[in-house]
Design goal:
CATH superfamily: Antithrombin, subunit I, domain 2
CATH topology: Antithrombin, Chain I, domain 2
Largest sheet: 4 strands, mixed
CATH class: Alpha Beta
Shape: globular
Number of strands: 4
Radius of gyration: 18 Å
CATH architecture: 2-Layer Sandwich
Structural class: alpha/beta
Order of helices and strands: EHHHHHEHEHE
């Protein structure tokens, strides 16, 4: 889960008008998601505040997205626990995914005088079996590009591949997210959500 904020912009009347139009569209699509995100934000903020005394910057939306990506591929108690963390009634992710999918598309549109890039990706072990239904859901709702990597043969090379993607998607602001040794031969799947904002 990655989130980068970079300030600095100048006023542009046309861009500002487009921004307001886009903001209204996003606001309309946020109606059903906002209570869930707010509730998640308050709970997560309490946890972070308990463990960190200094300033902390994080994106609840990014974390929420990553958990949703994991959740759609789970079942049983794990699915129920993730659904509960996301504020869902029961363990049916379908309504949430249907609300989030168009929101991602609008958030990623350009021409607003700002830069807002949202990217999701998955790296799967070369011989790891992934259900087609899970792959389809990741692509359909999160536009996730799934790549195959050989974690067993060369985890450090995979680590570099992932870090390069992170660096590119965050405007070169986050480098070496995964430290040496953090990707191991036993790693089966890495899911990433990156948000880069400049405005």
């Amino acid at each position: 889960m990655l989130f980068v904020v970079q300030g600095g912009s100048r006023y542009n009347k046309t861009a500002d008008k487009k921004k307001k139009i886009l903001s209204k569209k996003i606001e309309n699509k946020m109606v059903g998601v906002t209570p869930l995100l707010n509730n998640f934000n308050f709970k997560f903020d309490e946890i972070v505040a308990e463990k960190n005394k200094g300033n902390v910057i994080f994106s609840p939306f990014s974390i929420y997205t990553a958990l949703a990506m994991v959740g759609v591929g789970t079942e049983g108690n794990t699915r129920k626990q993730i659904a509960n963390a996301l504020g869902l009634d029961g363990d049916n992710f379908a309504p949430l995914l249907q609300m989030l999918s168009p929101l991602y598309k609008d958030l990623s549109k350009g021409g607003t005088g700002t830069t807002l890039d949202i990217a999701n990706k998955a790296w799967v072990g070369k011989n790891t079996e992934i259900l087609k239904s899970y792959q389809d859901n990741l692509m359909k709702y999160f536009d996730v590009e799934m790549g195959r990597e050989d974690f067993v043969k060369d985890p450090e090379a995979v680590r570099k591949t992932i870090n390069d993607w992170v660096e590119e998607k965050t405007g070169h602001n986050i480098k070496d997210l995964f430290t040496p040794g953090s990707i191991e031969t036993t790693t089966q799947l890495v899911l990433a959500n990156a948000i880069y904002f400049k405005g």
